[in-house]
């Protein structure tokens, strides 16, 4: 969706500078800023439940789920070596 808004020159200059620092677009900077405002962000999905009530966190693309993550989850749930 596209939206046109009016903001003052000083605010825009700050947004533009942040975009250059982050090597991203002005639009991305505004979206990221709005996502941090309470009430604007989507609720986080609940963790996936697996048998026995153990929980595995759901990744929203921040980084891939690795073997190390599995080892940490096993250690936290005293499951190391059960498979």
Descriptive overview:
The chain has 83 residues and is mostly helical. The chain folds into 2 domains: 42 residues; 41 residues, no CATH class. The protein has 3 helices and 2 strands; from the N terminus they run H-H-E-E-H. The protein has a two-stranded antiparallel ribbon. A hairpin with a 5-residue loop joins strand 1 and strand 2. It starts with 8 loop residues before the first helix and ends in a 7-residue tail after the last helix.
> Mean of the pLDDT scores?
79
Strand order of the largest sheet: 1-2
The secondary-structure class comes to mainly alpha
Helical fraction: 25-40%
Number of domains: 2
Instruction: List low-pLDDT spans.
Output: none
Rounded radius of gyration (Å): 20 Å
Note the gap between the termini: 48 Å
Topology, number of strands? 2
Strand content: under 5%
Number of helices: 3
Approximate shape: elongated
| H/E element order | HHEEH
Major β-sheet annotation = 2 strands, antiparallel
Write the layout of secondary structure elements.
Layout: H1 9-21, H2 26-35, E1 48-49, E2 55-56, H3 67-76
Antiparallel strand pairs: 1-2
Helix pairs in contact: 1-2
